[in-house]
Amino acid sequence: MAYCALLPTVTHYLRDECAHYGTPDAGVWVCDPPAVYRPRHPEASIFYQTFEQHFDSYVRAYEERFELRSGPLRRVVPESVEQFLACGRLQGGFARIRCPACKSEHLLAFSCRARGVCSSCQAKRAALFAEKLTSEILPPVPYRHWTFTIPKAIRGLFERERRLLGLLSRTAYDSIRKSFQTLFGRKDVRPGCVISIQSFGSFGANFHPHLHVLVSDGVFTRAGEFLELPSVDTAAVGEVFRRLLLRRLHDAERLSERFMHNLLGWVHPGFSVFAGDIIPAEDRQGLERVARYITRPALAIDSIRRREDGRLEIQTPLDPRTGATVRIFDPLEWIHAVTAHIPDRGQHQVRYYGALSNRARVTIAGLDGQSCRPSGMQQKRDEEKIDSSRARRASWARLLRKIFEVDPLLCTCGAQMKIVSFITEPRVVDRILRHLASEACKARDPFEPRAPPAAASPSPT
Predict the structure, then answer these.
(1) pTM (2 d.p.)
(2) Are residues 31 and 17 in contact, defined by beta-carbon separation less than 8 angstroms?
(3) Domain ranges across the chain
């Protein structure tokens, strides 16, 4: 009787979750096959083709067209572009993947891991960062997403001298720390901050250095106790940030005293500090989404289109001043705008301050009331955490499932595929690719299973 009562519910569920084949009264319901990963082809995008066709011309024209405005061409730019042009291309090496069930094979190209120019690699890097941040670094307390922006009058300083981005980041943290300490009336407390430095704005490929900050909605004492913030005053934090940054730029001899006082006297100073809603301590998924957002790529690889006159066009949000929703570039201007977001070698784009700095994370572990000193058991746990972190970083298949919701190791037959080798030798790579492009290979599947050759019959005596 109970089975008959549940039958309509089960049938309704199957109709929602599965695809129907045949006539409605056939009674045959077959679930959709699992999504199968398809390798991307970056060389087919306008983004990739623009770099491939015009980057050499950009390098030759840089001194005349761009050096006065942006400083000398940084060495990291040609290096990163060269890596990007090899990303996702079989010519740079690949992994050979085989299905143990049906014996089918395919090749998977390596990624470049270049920063600032390859949106695919940056998306994977953002997913890794967000996962590590929420599972290993951030203690279970509430947080807010803050943003810090600066006026156009001083943005060129940070484009010509990238080291000043570190000063910008430290100043934002000091502004939050000073404001929170004043609010609590204590000097022995500090918040936990994770700051992501971004150089791109929302109106296309413009250089707009600003900061995205995950801030604990409260402060930590030296004993590891967390004190929740009673209120948030972004105007006060913004004023501290403005005065502190201009004073430090003046002390670093990057602003004259007269220009500094002019900026301090502006009615609309151009500095902005914004704090979002509270992210509760138990909302780890929401926190992970914010962490991925603050480390997102500058531009999507399919964000531009080519006009008939050869120039490039990008869709942008509505500009409140002009009402424009597109920006148009010639190819060299476009390349210059994109490569401006490539960070220098060794320059960290994500920085940890206060209670989340490396020296303070052991203290935060004392929130559960246990000893903060690393005992033998604690060292074992730390080693296991390091091993799990390495395994998570190495599991690119799991990472792609997380980003694209498809399994790159799932065969069309439904079996799980295995990596059988990595091909990196240029001579071997060229030989395999030439074979795959040959007519003999196109006529049949080169990895199709076949029976062993028949043994030669014995010659008559």
Answers:
(1) 0.77
(2) yes
(3) 1-32, 33-114+330-336+396-450, 122-298+341-372
